[in-house]
Design brief:
By secondary structure, this protein is of the alpha/beta class. Helices cover about 35% and strands about 20% of the residues.
Amino acid sequence: MKILICPDSFKDALSAAEAARAIACGIARTGGEVVTLECPLADGGEGSLDALIAATGAERRTAEVHDALGRPTRADWGWHPASRTAYVELAEASGLQQLTPGERTALHSTTRGVGELIRAALDAGAERLLLTLGGSATNDGGAGMLAALGARLRDAQGHELAPGGAALERLAGLDLSGLDPRLAGLAVEAAVDVDNPLLGERGASTVFGPQKGATAADVERLDAALARFADLAAEALGEDHRDLSGAGAAGGMGFAARAFLGAELRPGIELVMAQAGFDALLGDADLVITGEGQLDGQSLGGKTPIGVARAARRRGVPVVVLAGRLAPGWQAAFDEGVSAAFALADGPMALDEALERCAELLADRAESLVRLLRAMPGA
């Protein structure tokens, strides 16, 4: 039996590579002739950079940037000199996991650091950019990124706007003449892990703002502010991308990537799988084991287990999901090619215990799964 192991990270517990190793270790305890192949994946959120570097052999580089609150920090990015390709993960510079719950402020967080990473890539001579857009702490529609790349966003008095999405409600002028001219020669692909538009009931502010510290009143302000930004962007560019699938990713960074960088928006898991040569690996597999921290109804919007299941279904390979938690709506995964799904907990436990024992629980579930398969008639 050949098993392809391709989990995403388990947030706050294990990286994708660590999760894959834990699953492989559990399978190894079964003995017998089971061949495993580890292929850590990501869907555009945290860990995407690690997955891309592992898949391509790119160099890991570090740049001095600003985090989502404007504080100096260091962020990694990837550089593949042979193809002149840069890999930039938004979460490295502007990620939610870098902030404590008390620091999360959707009103004022900024994507400035993402623009600084892109500038570092341009300085290295990048001709192609893969930009992953999950795990953001921001809701500024990419305004901070634009400012870092040379755009000017001004209020009615001609003053440059303060960082953050709330400031966009005062936006009166959008001057793109100062954008870095090297962007014109940069081919951009943006990996998104959701399919939400920029505005409205399914928009960036309404759906994702609350997890970034936004109150109900804040959500209304932010949605109106992003609408104003979209209006002025459409006026400046002659085209409107607010309703584009994925425009609402990362607090509107999907919108900015398409509108101002000319990016092709692709489901993040598809982009990472393509870089990892997933289809070739899948060809020899009898079973795929994938997983992430939580499987739920929203996973269908582009999360790793669903992307893996859809690809495997086309090749007739069964897929099992190991998830930290099976949350409401998870059964919809069966319609996408998932053969079975299992939660990790072996009894009632607090979140801290579940996180601490994640590797152990993954190994145990993987071992039990393979022992069951080998016990079946004809196995």
